[in-house]
Fold this sequence. Notes:
The protein has helices at residues 11-22, 38-48, 62-71, 87-92, 94-115, 150-168, 202-210, 238-251, 269-280, 304-310, 318-331, and strands at residues 2-6, 26-30, 54-55, 77-80, 119-125, 173-179, 181-183, 217-220, 232-233, 235-237, 255-261, 267-268, 286-289, 298-299. By secondary structure, the chain is α/β, with parallel strands linked by helices. The two termini are 31 Å apart. 50% of the residues are buried. It binds uridine-5'-diphosphate-4-deoxy-4-fluoro-alpha-D-galactose. Uridine-5'-diphosphate-4-deoxy-4-fluoro-alpha-D-galactose (UFG) is lined by residues 85, 87, 125-127, 152, 181, 200-202, 205, 217-220, 231, 233, 269, 292, 295, 299. Uridine-5'-diphosphate-4-deoxy-4-fluoro-alpha-D-galactose is lined by residues 85, 87, 125-127, 152, 181, 200-202, 205, 217-220, 231, 233, 269, 292, 295, 299.
Amino acid sequence: MRVLLTGGAGYIGAHTAVALVEAGHDVLVVDDLSNSSAEAVARVERITGATIPLLSADARDADALTAFVREHAPVDAVIHLAGLKAVGESVAEPLRYYDVNIGSSIAVLKVMAAEGIRTIVFSSSATVYGEPESLPLSEESPTGIDLANPYGKTKRMIEEILKDAAAADPHLRAVSLRYFNPVGAHDSGLIGEDPTGVPNNLMPYVARVAVGALERVGVFGDDYDTPDGTGQRDYIHVVDLAAGHVAALEHAREGYEVYNLGTGTPVSVLELIAAFERAAGKEIPREILPRRAGDIAASYCDPSKAQRELGWRATRTIDDACRDSWNWQSNNPRGYATA
Length: 339
Ligand code: UFG
């Protein structure tokens, strides 16, 4: 298939581009490069040997998308990853989040309808489950529009938009992938997570402490109702996650489907830090801080639907993710800026 990958220069996008090429697909990337780097696409080309056309444009720009799609016709499918993703920022700038995330999704769907493209895979998030009523989370677990932040609400709303679009067009194949916590990097060490500024998420924060760019990791609460008192998450290796996109694309059927992409195994903050210490062969300084507002104690999934219907499951462990994250971080201490 020829696949338009929006947000293809980002962390998940670059790994998905590699997986697509390795599975025999052609990839075109559109990315506004606001929180990503053209260098990531160049490195995907280096890893795969493929040429990947890159359009530097906002995914809300339907005219630019249309021209790009026509230039590379026929495009068979879209994997729509473009969007803003910082939870705290979304609370401060809700309108920007609704505009960018929902506006780009609608533009993509309009261009698809006009150009006869009938398959879309969308990057949703485990955040749509909000505070879990019970664990593990299955696709049938309750979700709500009443979520803690605008970022999560945009993901939930876009899922509804896709569901309605698929109900109205019997030929549309639409899939939402609810990611748990993506971590790790490609084993080449050429692509990885390169957040702007001080990372919000645990793994990139730990990686920067390990490389000496930050002093110590703050552990946000050790009084949760979990085995060691720290928060538990379902950390999924980004290369497994990327393979999940290819499986979703190849198995998509007419209608709308949702899949959890996770490992099913909870890992605590302290367990992740310990795994990183083993990978890097050094101690990671940490201090216990108060809980972070809006955090939940534990989140992990039942990934069996994806295994049953897509033939996909995560095969990499937290130790694999820490090894690959450390390899990326130590080879690229300033991320793509070292290029
Ligand atoms: N944590 C720390 N210290 C840090 C950062 C995080 O202790 O410096 C802890 C958190 O309290 C939490 C765990 O590490 O227990 C994971 O936190 P992350 O920020 O890495 O990830 P979250 O689970 O909070 O959020 C992630 C994505 C969101 C998404 C959410 C959905 O970043 O985009 O999962 O589950 F919405």
